[in-house]
Amino acid sequence: MSSTDPHPASPTGGDTPSGTPGASRTTAATARPADPEQFTPIRAKAAPRPGTWVSAVIVGLLVLALVNFLVTNPVLEWGTVATYILDVKVVQGVGWTLLVTVLAMVLGTVVALLAAVMRRSDNPVLRGVSWAYIFVFRGIPVYTQLVFWGLFTVIVPKLVVGVPFGPELLSFSTRDLLTAFWAAVIGLGLNEGAYLAEIIRSGLNSVDRGQTEASKALGMGNGKILRRIIVPQAMRVIVPPLGNETIGMLKTTSLVLAVPFTLDLTFATNGIANKLFTPIPLLIVAALWYLAITSVLMVGQYFLEKHFGRGFDDRTPVAPRRGSRSGRQAAVTRSGTTPHDPLPEVEL
Amino acid sequence: MTSNPTPDGTARSAAADATHSTDSTAPSSPVVIEVEGLHKTFGDLHVLKDCDLTVRSGEVAVLVGPSGSGKSTLLRCINQLEEATAGTIRIEGVTQGYAEQSLPDGRLQKLSAQQIAAQRARIGMVFQRFHLFPHMTALQNVMEAPVQVLRISKAESEARARTLLERVGLADRADHYPSELSGGQQQRVAIARALAMEPELMLFDEPTSALDPELVAEVLAVLKDLAADGMTMVVVSHEMGFAREVADQVAFMDEGRIIERGTPEQLIDHPRSERLQGFLASVL
Ligand SMILES: Nc1ncnc2c1ncn2[C@@H]1O[C@H](COP(=O)(O)OP(=O)(O)O)[C@@H](O)[C@H]1O
Ligand SMILES: [Mg+2]
Questions:
Q1: pTM for this structure?
Q2: Which atom from ligand 1 is nearest to the alpha carbon of B42?
Q3: CB-based burial, B17-45: b 16+ in 10 Å, e otherwise
Q4: Largest Cα–Cα distance of chain A, in whole Å?
Q5: Is pLDDT above 70 for A333?
Q6: Are B179 and A315 in contact (CB under 8 A)?
Q7: Which range scores top for mean pLDDT: A82-91, A161-170, B227-236?
Q8: Which residues of A touch B187 (CB under 8 A)?
Q9: How much is the ipTM here?
Q10: Strand order from edge to edge, sheet including B257-262
Q11: Of A148, A265, B22, B102, whose CA is between 20 and 30 Å from B220?
């Protein structure tokens, strides 16, 4: 195939000037520095960009005005903010809010995983139940659901385990079991599960079918394939919207008054504000705490993303570069179930 | 066209057997794969039509044929990734997918998902696109199934996995994720992963088709090594050099049918059907 002729006929297409082509190539080569590692970097002055400066000045002035307003406005009462930011009631409220958030998210995730797996099942009964759960719990306002769970002990005063129409084996008074705290957790968790089910389902669907095939070919059963192969890969797609949902949950806990559960952060700051007749500084207290918790959650999300992103890099087409804003946003968007949020992702 | 010296079909298979007897593989070695009258349909699409295939222990069968002729489907039926529509598949004499005893009314009894998984575990499969587990390192990929399916201890599985990675020349890549490996390296890890289950036979579905040309040789070298070691293999491949060197039998598929079968010399050097001649002209 390859020619053995050391001088193939006119490699440049016949337009070489008379003389040996080898010689002309040597001349071209000697015109450059001898060492190919050496180069002279391009030196150039930046093109003028007046727009950059104008916009920076305008926005900078606006920020200064805002800071000035925040610092000097007497209505904000920064002194009161400082007094109450570490108030026992407030700090306890932070604790309860965090606890409700975490427990509701755990419950929601477990229920959602179940619903998502049922949704993919071959069994039409399981698929139907899963669909109905998502339909009902996503379709009713969370506030209404919380009121319902608060009234659950009235609607169902006693839970009985026994033979239908026969003897009772065990009976519980729901009032003893379902405290306001658990009613809040269950109400928020079941509502959240309906949203997360769709996120998790699309996460599971995002895993290449070849992964299931390869696992099957190795003799793995369906449960193992799901647990060891599919879920860990789906988590990469699930975690970013799960982080959004967790931050959303943190804020939704301010609705637990509907149960009524009265130990959370918003209730605590509202209580103090009503006693002092100074609503504004205590709103700031609450806002600062919510921001602080959000920051902590974002750190947690960062580490989760890092964990589940292992093994994926730019070369894998579905895997965007870890930690890049566009990548994470793409993952959020791909799940298609998170409500549009203009500031969904912040670089850590 | 050169005139074809090969006699008619029946005489031809006898000739094939005669060739085998001079091979390292004795014709008396036990049959590992026995496919009989296999049909597969996807809705109205008749993808496999009356396919027969017999592969003896230690043999290498190479399947060739144009794209869409049903080669992958045949392999996938053998390890039950697809359910056959008609016909039987036996591995070492054991019917795949169904109980040996049929029901009193004449129907077959399907095996449970666990039983099918156990049958699959004895068949190694290597895919065109590797399908390594991306969230696991090379070592973890190879360890996974022995630990999860065979319930071998982690320490033992790791020792075995390291030996296998060394065998495919990747001892120093054990802790790399698949995304950090070249295509050829990924495919070699995939082969090690399948071997870790100590399968009776291996199926390869175009193991080198997704690779850059310069990476094909390293994967074929592993296949040759396996063949020399006596592994029973069915390889879908268009690498005719490999087929000529390693295959005990070559089968040519077209439009769902196995239309020619024989030794590499018979099939590659003396193709009888026009379709095979045309096909060879396109790949050689
Ligand atoms: N799951 C499936 N559903 C429908 N048609 C399929 C499916 N798998 C394969 N086919 C069809 O079966 C035929 C054979 O495919 P395949 O076995 O992949 O061929 P080959 O591997 O020889 O290229 C093709 O026409 C393909 O489109
Ligand atoms: Mg194929």
A1: 0.78
A2: 4
A3: eebbeeeebeeeeeebbbbeebbbeeeee
A4: 112
A5: no
A6: yes
A7: B227-236
A8: none
A9: 0.88
A10: B123-126, B201-205, B232-236, B60-64, B249-254, B257-262
A11: B22
